[in-house]
Amino acid sequence: MKIKQIQVDNYRLLQNFKLDLEDELSLVLGKNNTGKTSILSVLEKFINSEKSKFTSEDFNLVFKNGLEDLIKNSVEKTEEEFKELGKDLGIKLRLVIEYFDNDDLSNICNVMMNLDPDNNKVVLGFNFVINFDGYRKFRKEYSEFEKKEKLKFEKGKIKSEDSEEVISTYSQRGFNEFFKQNFTEYFKLYKGPLEWDLMKNEIIESTIVGAENFKDILNFKSIKAKRDVNNKETDKTLSKQTSEIYKREETSEEQKEKIEKFTDELSSTDKTLTGIYADIFKAVISDIKKFGGLQENETNIEIFSTLQQRELLEGNTTVMYSHENSDKLPEHHNGLGYMNLISLIFEIKIQVEEFKRGKLEKPSDINLLFIEEPEAHTHPQMQYVFIKNIKELLKGGINKKLKNDEGEEKIIQRELQYIVSTHSSHIVAESKFDDIKYLKKLNKNEVISKNLKDLEKEYNEKGQQQNYKFLKQYLTLNRAELFFTDKAIFIEGDTERILLPAMMKKIDGEYPENKLLSQNISIVEVGAYSHIFEKFIDFIGMKSLIITDIDSYYLVPAMEKDKTTPKKKANGEPEFKTQKCPANAPNSDKTSNHSLLFFYGKTCDDLIYFKELLLESKTLIKDKNKEWKVDKKGKLLIVYQTEELGYHARSFEDAFFKLNEDFISNSCNEFESLTNKWIEKFRIDKDPFQLAEKGVNSKPSLAIEILRNSASDASGNEYSNWQIPAYIKEGLLWLKED
Could you tell me which residues are beta bridge partners of residue 322? Predict the structure, then answer.
């Protein structure tokens, strides 16, 4: 029996939200403020609260604005019109549960709304909603509130001292203030089952009027990100947790023998200590007898030892670390990362014991644990360790021994589902892609959840299984932070990777508003394979810039070894080879750039299309058919070399050399990566193409040398002695805008 889906309506950013759960681990990730904590919060408020714990700030802003219009509208809706607005108006939680023949159905049968044997889903519904009577009461009382506020405003009117304008000393309150103080009068908490439509694969919504207790079906617990762990000498978090673990385990059948042994030892110790106490407190007891009218032998006071195992553990267990020389060091001597990891494991152990419930109770049918941001206060290596081992730690689920009426022991076993929320790229890098649920913000008031395994389906449908395999390997090994970045730059090679931060800093100096280096931007080196990332770019929905080369060329006849005889194919047709050239060379008519051809749906013969394409026509968006189309509102921009100073370069080096002739030719600047023969030739003929194609020994070294030879101007602006090629500059300026 498992929760297959969580649905939430109108709770904070979770306006119309669905989260699919895996059988074991569901790894929920997303950038900050994408609703990860809201999922935990709404589950706690509905499942673990008998009374409403909601605040006015919990309501989604779009819903609240719609409610304001409904309440303030001059025409009151009839009951029928109100029902047409929806079955329930307010915050809702739906848990879709799937069960199987081998499950214990004794509890869940009470919430089955459909007896179709093929329908193995039930729905637990939770509402915090306003009904028609609440709506009418809300309208009536808000109308009275408005009238009173207007009167107070009118009474407070005075003439301004500075002008003849009439102002009021009273600040009139509005809908938000009234709603905040009074919403609990109109919204009520309800819990009850709902039916699952097997044909439509959706919930059949109906009004919930009860307040059912689902505790035998569902048990929810959480471990929050804010944990009381530090490495101060006075802190004993780990030691305190050992007593917490004991409290959970002392009533379990599995630990019965061990607990009895512990209790027997305490009883023996009690007898010894009682005798010692008689001597220690002999004088005190004698003094007490002198007060209060006590007569000798009439009332005897004795002090007994009554050790309690719980209290003994709570105050007197200390977690120690073993050192290399067998010394024992206190817990605060270890690093905070280790302490937090150990504390987290202790806390998980405590919660697993809590899932077992009372001594005579069965565990609930479904047990859901939410672990919020395990990376809190933990360094990367500990994050790797945690996520690699969490499944092994929890795979045993919940196991509890109970005796039946005949006294026979029976093991009750329940599986454990757990949600881990994170914004740690280190945790993602060690996770299975199928476990990942990515939270994507559609707008400032709505978030959706996307299953990463659905991305795999997209690749498979296009026969691109190898591309998806490469994407998984690349993201987990190199760039898991792409899941959490706001913007991304995809580049081809080392030169751009090394120089881009300097270029971004240079642009920030020229255009200080909304600086690039202050934004959450990832730079990703993908070679000539940016098109492999296209489905991922669309899936994540981040603003992305692809910087690539136009890769212009033309065809020339291939020659035999004698260099005079044209080569021919087996069928007798002439054989050709590619000839690289600047994009504005007389014979230039083709491009070999696969990314350009893929994203714009062109062929290699369409070089002139790319040469004439303006910046506003380079932004792309995916249409309903999942095809990339030119759109000014698109969040993907592809830039490549454009004509500059009367020259259209083929590559980055080509464009840089043309734009920075003096910088490259300056004999005071050292460029060991450039061949002497070709740099000398460049100083004479200023041919950037030949230097880029034949004179560069190492592109990474060239990039480093550009930085080494950089200089600042009199105003302190760095990198002032060289210029950024126009196509990169226009791409970065586009990216820096929100």
Answer: 328
